[in-house]
């Protein structure tokens, strides 16, 4: 990416101190009329403010017009002031109310058949400029006074970052904010319901949603939000800086959630849930999203990155803290296991592709800013880095360092090095030096552990690739976390000799292992002797270690450093594990075997028999419905094994699921949320009809339960009826059926269905321009490319993918994604060609 010269930032020319933002919003006409008055200091007479889609009618200083030039290509307006120095300027403008889910926008929903809308905002990364002219850069912190008028009718509520202090002539005036960045300004209005509480320290906490939802759906979020703020105030040893913390569920929302200071916005699915019928994994997901956003109220909002190149620091830190907080609130969930099944594998998979971005990326224009939101790197890998740091520091030094960091930088901005300095001062460790090797270079190492010809135990590191990779000789400072004291705490060299293996083994009395706890961002390749020793004692390993063993071997197989065929006997060995995280990895491997078979072939029938063999014992043990008092692991394991049983076409499983459907035909939403999606999928695949399709699609449109909606969205696209597939794709552009925020999931569902793949892929290519026009300004736009690459693994699809996307390779924000995804598909095509015969022979051998 291009490096942005310091002198091109608008903040260098003009430093705002305070904004008075007046907005008159007309939903019926879809217009905004605004006046923004800014107090600040101009370093020179000619300054620029950011604006996008604004029709500026006048700029005045001391009530006198001054010259201005709109520069749409720069998303700016250039203003000539009478002189440099302190100034107060006012900008009058109008703007459209758009449906892009960016800026100020309407969300659509229905109550009792009546169409309604709620207005909300989404300003990160650079969409505040669509609402009001500003220096729309993170470092340009200022205070804001909002005054908002709208086409109001009785029964409507308006909320914002700060409390409302009065209303006059239909204008709602809000308290002045603390110093903050433009992208954190937020407000919303409409017919909202709410539930409120208060923390021990007197912070008002509220959950807001449309009246399409049952009031009880707000309870879980309210409890988590209250307890999270109390936890963070204690952990950070820094009070929550605002009078209130509102959580708002928006029916249309492009991201998962957004940490606007004092008014956090969420997708409905990530805030609201039915306490009487929601699966444990969904509760965990909602809890971690809430605690992630609330972690940002300090780390991101109180102290903000200076520029977007340190975005990773905001997100990685919140990603780690969400687990720290939920673990404190619900210790019985053992939430760090979720970190092992979500963040760790996502980061390891993505970061092994040559061309991946480093965690810390230089960034220039707005399209590039959005493109660095690679969740596997910015969130998952970054949070692994910080978990690594936490393990090195311990919580006492971490908390001390954070307290000092907040005190030094509150209401201002900081860079990554400021955090390392604070943590280093608190711990006496050179954190910056250790982190530099992980943040500034892409990828991660595989550490090879082997006994050499002289009987010495030797470790060596080199970059790990899945697919072709250019080895640049990179090395990392690796926290080894070994169970043998002979291994150093940090491995900085390419190779290290630990000593005579037999002596070390005898002294330790257990197999040699590295990365115990799986907190460091590397994988291990043990030689045959060391691996066999671990496998011989695998029953003594804890669940994380068993899972890690399978995970590392899967990645080594994907990187063609071991044979995929060698993994198959291990699946049989661990098939009866009672650990959900072991089963998650086991079925990750098992599902990846599907790429080695052609649908409908004898090899696929053989693979289905293998799936039946893997799952039948667990299905018999767990059954279809949750049992009173069963463990969390059993609850979380059940969907994996039932899904495998359905894929294997196990007649008893199909029959049992069908009976549950028949028994609950009139109240499908009341089916146990743990298995509801699988029951619906079974019905669509094995008992499908046009009547059933219509019933489920109608339920999808009508239900307000986000969890049930997700189950329907997963099940409906698995139909094999070509006519129904055509109907689904026909709804892709109809926002009244499929909201743009949910389109990617519907696209992926049909694409992953062999019967629908051609139709979905044709749609993407034919309607790419429409897609770009509809969600192109969204940071998730590039993920349509990602999900396509995730499904494709044949030479024919690779050729089509390249033919379509290579001409788009220079599109800002898509370049890295296209290049990486071509490599990802190429690596799978090569792997299948090389391993197909051996994998299918290995499957035949174990069934």
Give a verbal description of the structure.
This protein is α+β, with helices and mostly antiparallel strands and 847 residues long. Strand 1 (14-26) and strand 2 form a beta hairpin. The model is unreliable at 1-7 (pLDDT under 50).
Architecture blueprint of SSEs:
Layout: H1 10-13, E1 14-26, E2 31-42, E3 46-50, E4 55-61, E5 64-65, E6 68-71, E7 76-80, E8 85-96, E9 103-111, E10 114-122, E11 143-150, E12 157-160, E13 164-168, E14 171-174, E15 187-190, E16 192-198, E17 204-210, H2 219-236, E18 244-250, E19 257-258, E20 263-267, H3 280-295, E21 303-305, H4 311-329, H5 336-341, H6 343-350, H7 366-371, H8 375-393, H9 395-409, E22 412-414, H10 416-427, H11 431-439, E23 445-451, E24 456-463, E25 478-479, E26 490-491, E27 495-500, H12 501-508, E28 523-526, H13 528-536, H14 543-558, H15 568-574, H16 580-592, H17 602-622, H18 632-647, H19 651-663, H20 676-686, H21 690-702, H22 706-715, H23 722-730, H24 743-751, H25 757-766, H26 768-775, H27 783-791, H28 795-805, H29 815-846
Parallel strand pairs: 1-11, 17-18, 18-20, 21-22, 23-28
Antiparallel strand pairs: 1-2, 2-8, 3-7, 4-5, 4-8, 6-7, 9-10, 11-14, 12-15, 13-14, 16-17, 19-20, 23-24, 24-27, 25-26
Helix pairs in contact: 2-3, 2-4, 3-4, 4-8, 6-8, 9-10, 14-16, 16-18, 17-18, 17-29, 19-20, 20-22, 21-22, 24-25, 24-27, 27-29, 28-29
Organism: Limosilactobacillus antri DSM 16041
Protein name: Aminopeptidase
EC number: 3.4.11.-
């Amino acid at each position: 990416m291009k490096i942005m010269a310091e002198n091109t930032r608008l903040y260098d020319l003009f430093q705002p101190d305070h904004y008075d933002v007046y907005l008159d919003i007309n939903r019926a006409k879809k217009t905004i009329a605004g006046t923004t008055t800014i107090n600040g200091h101009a370093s020179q007479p000619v300054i620029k403010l950011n604006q996008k889609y604004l029709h500026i009618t006048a700029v005045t200083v001391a009530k006198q017009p001054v010259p201005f030039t709109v520069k749409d290509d720069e998303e700016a307006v250039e203003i000539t002031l009478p002189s440099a120095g302190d100034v107060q300027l006012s900008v009058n403008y109008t703007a459209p109310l758009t449906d892009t889910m960016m800026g100020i926008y309407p969300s659509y929903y229905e109550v009792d058949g009546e169409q309604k809308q709620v207005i909300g905002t989404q300003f990160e990364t650079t969409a505040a400029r669509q609402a009001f002219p500003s220096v729309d850069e993170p470092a340009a912190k200022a205070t804001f006074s909002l005054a908002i008028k709208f086409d109001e009718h009785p029964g409507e509520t308006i909320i914002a970052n700060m409390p409302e202090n009065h209303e006059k002539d239909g204008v709602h005036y809000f308290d002045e904010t603390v110093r903050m960045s433009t992208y954190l300004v937020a407000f919303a209005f409409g017919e909202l319901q709410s539930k409120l509480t208060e923390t021990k320290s007197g912070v008002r906490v509220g959950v807001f949603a449309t009246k399409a939802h049952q009031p009880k759906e707000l309870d879980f979020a309210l409890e988590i939000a209250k307890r999270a703020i109390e936890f963070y105030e204690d952990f950070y040893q820094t009070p929550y800086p605002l009078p209130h913390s509102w959580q708002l569920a928006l029916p249309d929302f492009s991201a998962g959630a957004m940490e606007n200071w004092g008014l956090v916005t969420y997708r409905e699915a990530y805030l609201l849930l039915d306490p009487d019928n929601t699966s444990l994994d969904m509760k965990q997901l909602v809890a971690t999203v809430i605690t992630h956003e609330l972690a940002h109220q300090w780390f991101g909002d109180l102290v903000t990155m200076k520029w977007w190149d340190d975005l990773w620091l905001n997100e990685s830190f919140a990603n780690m803290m969400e687990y720290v907080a939920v673990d404190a609130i619900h210790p019985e969930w053992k939430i760090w296991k979720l970190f092992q099944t979500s963040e760790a594998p996502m980061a390891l998979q993505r970061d092994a592709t040559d061309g991946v971005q480093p965690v810390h990326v230089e960034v220039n224009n707005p399209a590039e800013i959005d493109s660095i939101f690679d969740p596997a790197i910015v969130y998952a890998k970054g949070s692994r880095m910080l978990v690594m740091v936490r393990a090195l520091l311990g919580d006492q030094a971490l908390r001390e360092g954070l307290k000092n960091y907040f005190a030094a930088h509150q209401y201002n901005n900081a860079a990554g090095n400021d955090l390392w300095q604070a943590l280093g001062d608190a711990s006496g460790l050179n954190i910056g030096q250790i982190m530099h090797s992980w943040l500034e270079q892409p990828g991660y190492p595989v550490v090879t552990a082997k006994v050499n010809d002289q009987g010495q135990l030797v470790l060596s590191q080199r970059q790990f690739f899945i697919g072709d990779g250019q080895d640049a000789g990179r090395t990392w400072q690796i926290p080894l976390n070994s169970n043998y004291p002979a291994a150093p705490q940090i491995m900085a060299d390419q190779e290290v000799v630990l000593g005579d293996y037999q002596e070390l083994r005898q002294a330790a009395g257990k197999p040699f292992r590295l990365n115990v706890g799986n907190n460091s961002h590397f994988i291990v390749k043990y030689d045959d002797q060391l691996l066999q020793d671990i496998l011989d004692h695998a029953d003594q390993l804890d669940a994380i270690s068993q899972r890690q063993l399978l995970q590392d071997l899967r990645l080594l197989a994907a990187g063609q450093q071991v044979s995929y065929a060698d993994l198959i006997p291990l699946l049989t060995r661990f098939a009866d594990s009672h650990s959900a995280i072991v089963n998650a990895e086991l079925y990750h491997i098992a599902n990846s075997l599907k790429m080695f078979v052609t649908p409908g072939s004898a090899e696929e029938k053989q693979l289905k028999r293998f799936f039946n063999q893997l799952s039948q014992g667990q299905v018999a043990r767990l059954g279809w419905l949750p049992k009173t008092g069963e463990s969390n692991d059993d609850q979380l394991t059940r969907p994996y094994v039932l899904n495998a049983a359905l894929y294997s076409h196990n007649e008893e499983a199909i029959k049992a699921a069908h009976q549950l459907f028949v028994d609950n035909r009139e109240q499908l939403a009341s089916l146990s949320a743990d298995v509801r999606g699988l029951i619906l999928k079974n019905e669509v695949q094995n008992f499908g009809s046009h009547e059933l399709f219509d019933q489920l699609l109608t339920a999808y449109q009508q239900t307000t339960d986000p969890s049930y909606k997700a189950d329907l969205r997963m099940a409906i696209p698995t139909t094999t009826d070509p006519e129904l597939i055509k109907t689904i794709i026909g709804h892709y552009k109809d926002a009244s059926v499929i909201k743009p925020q949910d389109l990617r999931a519907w696209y992926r569902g049909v694409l992953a269905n062999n019967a629908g793949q051609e139709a979905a892929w044709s749609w993407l290519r034919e309607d790419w321009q429409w897609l770009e026009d509809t969600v192109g300004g969204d940071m998730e736009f590039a993920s349509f490319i990602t999900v396509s690459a995730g499904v494709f693994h044949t030479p024919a699809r690779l050729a089509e993918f390249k033919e379509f996307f290579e001409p788009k390779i220079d599109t800002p924000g898509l370049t890295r994604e296209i290049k990486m995804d071509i490599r990802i598909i190429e690596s799978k095509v090569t792997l299948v060609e090389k391993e197909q015969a051996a994998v299918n022979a290995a499957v035949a051998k174990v069934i």
